[in-house]
Every structure is written in structure tokens, then in C-alpha cells.
Amino acid sequence: QLQLVESGGGLVQPGGSLRLSCAAPGFALNYYAIGWFRQAPGMEREGVSCISQRGGSTRYADSVKGRFTISRDNANNTVFLQMNSLKPEDTGVYYCAAKFYVSDYWISLRGYDYTHWGQGTQVTVSS
Question: For residue 90, what are the contacts with CB-CB under 8 A and spacing of at least 6?
Fold first, then answer.
């Protein structure tokens, strides 16, 4: 019963920053690859970023590359998504997702590859 909990969402102005956190109390997330996804109203779910279970491999959607950074602190059992230079089109519900590792460097931006999902946190970028 792995349960993921996202936090850190909120309302920011364009150009601002937010840091999202994904945690799973009672579980060792270092055994899971983690992905961040988002969904805006009227839009399909988009893979934003992902990180391998050891943190050695990462991937970003073209739309966020250079602005977002994914990282993990395995000692504290937390995965972060630092979001800088936010744009209105970044608005949406952000979800973290997990999958028990396939290999040390397994990563994916395909939602159907993941087996566990959080409830999401709202990010709104507006002036």
C-alpha cells in the first residue's frame, strides 16, 4: 500500500518558483523510480520529469527543460521538483508516480508505466 503524498503547490506569478515534494511515509522510495506528471483543464496528462531509483538518471519534457529540476533525497525519503521561471501554461494538477525499479537506471515519462499515484497538488501560475 504505497501511498504518495505531494505538497508544495500554490499560486505564483509568471516567472516565479515553486518546489514540489513527493513523499511516501513508511516506504523506501529509493527502491522506486519516480515520475512527475501534470494535467491542465482540457489537456491530456503530460509527463514532466522522472528520476531513476538511485537518482543517477533523469529526463525532462521539452516544455520544462532548463526550468525544472528533479532530485531525490533518499536519506529523507523525498523526491523534489524545483520549478523556476514558471509560465501560465505550467498551470495544472501535478502528480507524482512511482514504480518499483526495473533496473538501476529505469526511467519513463509514460504514465502507463507507473503503478502508484499520489492525489496531486494544484499549481496555478497567474498574474
Answer: 38, 64, 83, 123, 125
Q: How far apart are CA 94 and CA 45, in angstroms?
A: 10
Band the pLDDT of 14: cuts 50, 70, 90: very high
Residue with cell 538511485: 54
φ, ψ dihedrals at 90, nearest 5°: -80, -10
Q: Are 5 and 23 in contact (CB under 8 A)?
A: yes
87-103: per-residue pLDDT in tens? 999 999 999 999 997 68
* Residue 84: per-residue pLDDT: 98
Strands 92-100 and 116-117, sheet pairing: antiparallel
Which of 82, 79, 96 has the alpha carbon at shortest distance from 35? 96
Angle ∠(44,78,9) on CA atoms, nearest 5: 45
**End-to-end Cα spacing for the chain:** 39
Place of cell 525544472: 68
